[in-house]
Each structure stands twice: as structure tokens, then as C-alpha cells.
Amino acid sequence: TFSMAQELYEKHGYLPTQKELAQIGYSSLSAAAAEHFGGLRELRKMLGDPGKATRQLETILNEYSGGGDGE
User: What percent of the chain has pLDDT over 70?
Assistant: First the structure.
């Protein structure tokens, strides 16, 4: 389960949401994450995935700051 989550994280750059997992045929990963790791949120923490809200905030801040090039 953890190795499957790692593969998805590396492929997508994040661990997909429960809905996204179902759409790509990995709905069983959600159930396994709940049973073995305390849910997708905890599994994301273990993978080092900051989560969707943090990624969205980083995108907004980068856009606001001009892409982080210091200008």
C-alpha cells in the first residue's frame, strides 16, 4: 500500500484525492490508507506531500510574486 502510494505520488507530484483515486482505478488505496495509516491525510504526511491547500497557496503566492524570480 505504501509503495503504491509512493508510485502515485512520484507520478503525479502529489497523492491524488479519494475521488481522483477512484477515477484512475485506485479506490482500494483510500480504504487501505484508512485502515493502515489513519487516512489519506496521514499517508500524505508520511510521503512528504504538503496537501492540496498548501500547493494551491504556493501557486497563488508564486503568481502574486511574479514567479519567485525576485522581481
Answer: 93
